[in-house]
């Protein structure tokens, strides 16, 4: 297998780098999204807020590493302006969820192009051999063709293997965003119904 890849020429080096980077990002993102789900804890937070147990809700979200709980924590900590607080943190968390995806997108586009470049280089080498040795050395000619085919196949393989998890991660980011928006809205409604919100109390006292 190694000998086969070596026959693909120097273009296999950037393709190998692309594959290593893609695998690293894919594994890291799989681990990230594996621990990203926190719907049960989010439901518990909303229930505690509806019951007026603010401190318990804060303790449940404090120090959380999950985007959803971090956003809810920002809303509780800044409950007088919960919508803006959650929006600000949500933008940052969305960037965290999309981390590495632009690199995967680049690899998906770049790998077939590198494979095509390897194909062109291999064919050029074949034509050069034909020009020098005519048709008396068929093995030398087919070596360039093999180099071209190996590079093409490798480039397409890297792109295809990267494309599937990339689309999965995009779908997960979209789904997590919808979940965050859902629970952020529920938290905002729950905070608005608290009878002892200090901002409402101050407004009532002002006009008393």
TrEMBL record:
<keyword id="KW-0653">Protein transport</keyword>
<keyword id="KW-0472">Membrane</keyword>
<keyword id="KW-0812">Transmembrane</keyword>
<keyword id="KW-1133">Transmembrane helix</keyword>
<dbReference type="InterPro" id="IPR002898">
    <property type="entry name" value="MotA_ExbB_proton_chnl"/>
</dbReference>
<keyword id="KW-0813">Transport</keyword>
<feature type="transmembrane region" description="Helical">
    <location>
        <begin position="148"/>
        <end position="169"/>
    </location>
</feature>
<feature type="transmembrane region" description="Helical">
    <location>
        <begin position="107"/>
        <end position="128"/>
    </location>
</feature>
<dbReference type="InterPro" id="IPR050790">
    <property type="entry name" value="ExbB/TolQ_transport"/>
</dbReference>
<comment type="similarity">
    <text>Belongs to the exbB/tolQ family.</text>
</comment>
<feature type="domain" description="MotA/TolQ/ExbB proton channel">
    <location>
        <begin position="71"/>
        <end position="181"/>
    </location>
</feature>
<protein>
    <submittedName>
        <fullName>Biopolymer transport protein ExbB</fullName>
    </submittedName>
</protein>
<feature type="transmembrane region" description="Helical">
    <location>
        <begin position="12"/>
        <end position="32"/>
    </location>
</feature>
<dbReference type="Pfam" id="PF01618">
    <property type="entry name" value="MotA_ExbB"/>
</dbReference>
<keyword id="KW-1003">Cell membrane</keyword>
